[in-house]
Amino acid sequence: MVRPQLAMGRLAQTETDHPATSHGDQQRHQTMTKYVLLYRGSKGMGETPEETQHLAEAWMAWYQQLGTAIIDGGHAFGPATTLTANNVSSDGAPSELTGYVIIQTDSAAVAEQLAVGCPALDAPDGRIEVHEALAY
Hints:
Elements: E1 2-7, E2 10-15, H1 23-30, E3 33-40, H2 49-66, E4 70-76, E5 82-83, E6 88-89, E7 99-105, H3 108-115, E8 127-132
Antiparallel strand pairs: 1-2, 3-7, 3-8, 4-7, 5-6
């Protein structure tokens, strides 16, 4: 069992003598990789209260599917500004991304399988990008 403790002003996790804690569990946790899921195609609000409710339920079902893989539940994106080396454009971002979620899994294949359930893919222009977050 892992028990959170405050150590030197920050939250640290320490093991207890619980028999369920195994060296294999620790190794598996250390080999997990973070993936940033960037999606486009869902604004999150319907045209009617019923449609908004349906969308909210679809997103909650997907979050339940992601389960413990979720590291950061993300947010929908608002207006964007694109910065370049030569100028600033407030016309938005060419990617038209509408939000993100960060998950942690043991492979890119698992991350891609989890991404398939994203409600943004139900939109006509829906897409989701799966990016591995590199640790240096």
